[in-house]
Amino acid sequence: MSVRLYLVRHAESTWNAEGRVQGQADPPLSEQGLAQAARLAERFRGEPIDALYSSPLERARQTADRIAEATALVTRIDDRLKEHDVGLFTGLVWREIVEQFPEFSQAWMERAMDMPGGEKQAAFHMRATGVMQDIVARHPGGRIVVVSHGGILGRYLAHLLGLTPEQPPPFHFDNASVSVVEVGDPLPTPRYARVHRLNDVSHLIALSDNGRRSTGGAGEGDR
User: How far is the C-alpha of 67 from the C-alpha of 39, rounded, in Å?
Assistant: First the structure.
């Protein structure tokens, strides 16, 4: 019995707007992010959703709260949906990472690596795939919204498609985007996985942001 997952990246945070790597830091949504979350909630109004899960980090919880209001669901918080802990990169903009960690920053773009002082890649992979498998197993035949972060969503989707953990996930997730996947039996691995939508932001078209789009969170660490 398949499960349909709506994988939602949180709306824009204040650090996204500044181009800062967030990891497990906890900045709130920006004004733009609050507007995005409202549009996102309208996207789900009237949808037959069975459960809503969220990362405990404020930017995700604020986003999930708006969806909860529109769907009359209770948000289920799971600590494992937190973003990758990026250690010493936390709070830095990309220019500062290149200046402080020049060799590492170049290699980081080419392959998944353990970040200085951060969560090990192997542990992050196990956490990201484990929490999603648990959610799927709880809701056979369900339609589930999961509000999380670019790193978590990318790592899980890469797992579904059979990509190795050593490869940086080749996906981009805009703030307040929705990706829709359908998965079969979750254990030990999905019997099948179908991607119906990837990085859908059509619900944000009406927002005027003067051409600005958040580039954070294309990969791990919610950049």
Answer: 9
pLDDT tens column, 97-109: 999 988 887 777 7
**Residue ranges covered by each domain of the chain:** 3-204
**C-alpha separations of 95 from 65, 90, 99 in Å:** 33, 13, 6
Category of 46 on φ-ψ map: left (φ > 0), alpha (ψ -120 to 50) or beta: left
> Tokens 């969503």 identify what position?
153
What residues act catalytically? 10, 149
DSSP track, 23-46: TT----B-HHHHHHHHHHHHHHTT
- The one-character DSSP state at 79 is G
Sheet holding 3-9, edge to edge: 75-77, 51-54, 143-148, 3-9, 178-183, 193-200
Instruction: Write down the residue that tokens 């992979």 correspond to.
Output: 125
How crowded is residue 114: how many other Cβ atoms within 10 Å of its Cβ? 14
Task: Give the CATH architecture of domain 3-204.
Answer: 3-Layer(aba) Sandwich (3.40)
The pTM assigned to this predicted structure is 0.91
What residues have CB less than 8 Å from 29, skipping those under 6 apart? 10, 11, 12, 13, 14, 36, 37, 58, 59, 62, 63
